Amino acid sequence: MVELGYKLSSEEQAPAALVANARRAEQAGFGFALISDHYHPWIDRQGQSPFVWSVIGAVAQATEQLVLGTAVTCPTYRVHPAIVAQAAATTAALMPGRFFLGVGTGENLNEHIVGAGWPETEIRQERLAEAIHVIRSLWRGGLQSHHGKHFTVENARLYTLPERLPPLLVAVAGPASARLAGELGDGLIGTESEPDLLACFAASGGEGKPRYGELSVCWASTDSAARRTAREWWPTAAMDGALSWELPLPSHFEAVAELVTEEAVAQSVVCSADPDAHVQAIERYAKAGYDHVAVHQVGPDQRGFFQFYEREVLPRLHQGKGARR
């Protein structure tokens, strides 16, 4: 079975809107939410990028059952892993059994701001592996020190720890990160319905661990309106993945976006008012091996999206396709 979730897009939604949409997602029947952790939006048009941990604290108080995970936090440049460990532990204490920490190697867009450089992918993955070790050591409690290749922690102790530690999931984009997720993570977060990545994850120690996928959609009253909205708000969907990691400023993404067409964006974003198109996309993720799928509605019309999914999509999945709400 696949459980359906909702993506809280911090790049597009102001803090109060994120909290309201988390509450609305819970009311609609979504079982979980993923929330992005950025310093900058991808393009200026998106217009937002609040501090995610403040928003999460508010979501914790505004919801009762919704499970929430970061998708994803980079614990290696902009924020030291010791601070991420404290933030996640505090959140898990606020949301017992309802929070998980998703981590990844990050993007230059957000991490360059502290002037620590942006090395090649292999080094970023090496830093992430060490950061995961730091986080888990602090979660054990007691005084902890770490003197590693990339990070130093001296006599640090987390006094606020939850009764049950949050799962730590790792974002994947290729075989190397899938292996890292299988070896060091409690689960996986992916953005592509790519069975080979999930097979690599399973073979590296991920068998039986949760697998979260992100699916971008754009519901509107007509398919043409959906394509226009997706092109305006999320042109990065049609860009090569390497650009997402390497470009440092929203203006650089906007320059590339000048070359992006509505048709190209619609290849990666489900731009449709037809519920069957949405159901089929969710089923592709399920067939690839995901057991959780978070749907990201691109653009400002979140109200219309919720009404559409409540009326047309969730009932079909719940009644006929074996999905859980």
Report on the architecture of this protein.
It is built from 13 helices and eleven strands. It is α/β, with parallel strands linked by helices and 325 residues long. The protein has one domain (3-320): Luciferase-like domain (TIM Barrel). Strands 1-2-3-4-7-8-9-11 form an eight-stranded parallel beta barrel, surrounded by seven helices. Helix 1 packs parallel to helix 2 (52-62) and helix 3 packs across helix 5. The protein starts with a strand and ends in a 5-residue tail after the last helix. The model has no long low-confidence stretch (mean pLDDT 96).
SSE inventory with pairings:
Blueprint: E1 3-8, H1 15-28, E2 32-35, H2 52-62, E3 67-70, H3 81-94, E4 99-103, H4 108-111, H5 121-139, E5 144-147, E6 152-156, E7 168-171, H6 175-184, E8 187-190, H7 195-206, E9 211-218, H8 223-233, H9 241-246, H10 250-257, H11 262-266, E10 270-271, H12 275-288, E11 292-297, H13 302-320
Parallel strand pairs: 1-2, 1-11, 2-3, 3-4, 4-7, 7-8, 8-9, 9-10, 9-11
Antiparallel strand pairs: 5-6
Helix pairs in contact: 1-2, 1-13, 3-5, 6-7, 12-13
Structural class given helices, strands, pairing? alpha/beta
As laid out across the biggest beta sheet, the strand order is 1-2-3-4-7-8-9-11
Query: pLDDT below 50 for ≥5 consecutive residues: which ranges?
Result: none
- List the total number of helices: 13
- The ordered string of helix (H) and strand (E) elements is EHEHEHEHHEEEHEHEHHHHEHEH
What fold name stands as the CATH topology? TIM Barrel
Termini Cα gap? 10 Å
Assigned CATH architecture = Alpha-Beta Barrel
Give the class-level CATH name: Alpha Beta
**Rounded Rg:** 19 Å
Count of DSSP strands: 11
Q: Approximately how much helix is present in the residues?
A: 40-55%
